[in-house]
Hints:
Elements: H1 22-37, H2 44-60, H3 62-73, H4 77-103, E1 106-107, E2 121-128, E3 131-135, H5 143-154, E4 158-162, H6 168-181, E5 187-189, H7 194-202, E6 207-211, H8 214-226, E7 230-234, E8 240-243, H9 250-262, E9 274-278, H10 279-297, H11 313-324, E10 329-331, E11 348-351, E12 368-374, H12 377-385, E13 392-396, H13 399-407, E14 413-416, E15 437-438, H14 444-449, E16 451-458, H15 483-492, H16 503-508, H17 512-529
Parallel strand pairs: 3-4, 3-6, 4-5, 6-7, 8-9, 8-13, 9-12, 11-12, 13-14
Antiparallel strand pairs: 1-2, 2-16, 7-15, 10-11
Helix pairs in contact: 2-4, 2-6, 3-4, 3-6, 4-5, 9-10, 15-17
The structure holds nicotinamide-adenine-dinucleotide.
Nicotinamide-adenine-dinucleotide binds at residues 135-140, 144, 162, 164-166, 193-194, 197-198, 211-213, 216, 219, 234-236, 269, 363, 365, 391, 432, 437.
Amino acid sequence: MSKEHSSVSGQLGECELQFTTIEAIGETVSSLRASFANGTMRDIAFRKQLLRDFLRGLRESKKELLDAVYFDLHKPRAETSYAEYDAVEYELGQFLDNLDKWAKPARNTLAMLQPAFLLSKSETRKEPLGTVVIIGPWNYPLRLILLPAVGALAAGNTVVVKPSEMAPHTALAIGNLVSKYLDPSVIRVVQGGVKETTALLSEKFDHYFYTGSGPVGKIVAHAAAEHLSGITLELGGKSPTIVHADVADLVPTALRIMWSKLTNAGQTCVATDYLLVHRSVKDKLVPLLVDAVAGLYGKSPQKSPDYGRIINARHWNRLMDALDATEGTVIDVVEDQPDENDLYFPPTIVDGVRPDDSLMKDELFGPILPIITYDTLDEAIALVNSRDQPLTMYVFSKRDTADVVLSRTRSGGATVNDTMFTSASLSTSFGGVGPSGVGSYQGKQSFDTFSNHRHVLTRPLWFPSAGVDTVRGPPFTGSDNSWKASTLNSMVYPKLWSLSDSVLGKLLTLIPFWRALAIIPCFLWALIRAKPVVRRRDD
Ligand code: NAD
């Protein structure tokens, strides 16, 4: 570690984060590459022990971790517990319970439909990629580093994690957890800001996993492209919530929308960014949204122990500028005012917003809810489609209406009649589409993301016989050889049911047994006609 210190500290606690030196970054990556090469991580039992150590470390560090996130974001410990800590604990449990099953080679039974693979063993092995890097943001600083790290280690990779320097307490707590409980030959933490991350990205990794904003996502994608390595980009965007005229009940709707807007003071990638509401229900919904704020945080959320703070003055001013420039109508929601010194930004609802308003330019990432009113569903769908594909979207309506919306829009995920709960489901994958992300993870999908799906085909040398084997290559011309192409074709790419013209052809391709029988005439024909290309030498 260098003597250089982070200039960023948490608002509620004093903390100096020592940055990793540029030389140490290079050494860290080299040593992790060397330990990957020694093969220890190939052993599933070793990986499971690692996950058990991880779990023990996580549990024993729980207080330190929850305190750290509180100091960085004023996030209530209960919220960090369910939204971050518990998710990581659950993920470790999922992997401990399922790793043996997920890591098992999968037999490719469909290869049986291709007669050329008779007596062959076709399987997909899940192998580690190598040494991977995981770079995380500040808004869920614990979860977004540790959750992918579980998958990366379980899949057998050696791992460098780089927590966000903008959440220094959490970065430090993650560093302590990793150095105290986990094997330094397989996972290490690099601390730092842009300079250190740039140095880290100049190293060759076998996979780059990044969570954060789109502009930095492009930098990471460039770095991965330099080495032709894989990437997962978990990005953001403006995720809409649509409330249609046929919504069943506006009361839970209002609560669920404001919950997503105000959790972590709106600094959540899957928060409702803006609200599209049908004109017929708008006037009933708005007062309920205001009531929901009071119900969650009272009339003075600044005094609430549960209301978060904006991460820093730059982001606070960004929100203030966007609000100052709006042409919408700011509604009275709470009694207190924005307070830069405390990084407090009150829950804010802005009605009558137009699609080209200042609040509609970029992802808000803060507790401001712009409301756009629409008259027809087509109008709402067109507005969503006029923007980049969001990370997620929420539709409050009858199922049929929601299906219309989903069938005509694109987003990474979607939830009908709720918000944000999709991210709590760790048995399903999570990720964006287009500008909101590349790839996905969580649970089994994490294992697959961090694995090389290696197709291994094992063939007997004696089958097919040397003569029949000649079908695979030239010469294809001349009367002695003209039969080869069609035989090869029916052995490798025989007609499947839907491709066969005759009923007999269809029947023959119905089940592998018949398909095996169907190939017998081809083999017989080949046996009669074929001459080995390479003859055995007598030596
Ligand atoms: P951030 O500023 O903490 O940056 C993320 C990481 O990138 C940090 O580790 C930082 O050190 C590094 N970084 C920053 N600038 C860099 C540069 N120029 N070169 C190299 N590395 C650099 O976090 P952020 O980007 O402000 O995060 C907020 C964004 O993340 C939002 O858009 C949000 O929607 C998105 N997000 C997405 C998800 C998801 O799961 N899809 C989750 C959380 C946040």
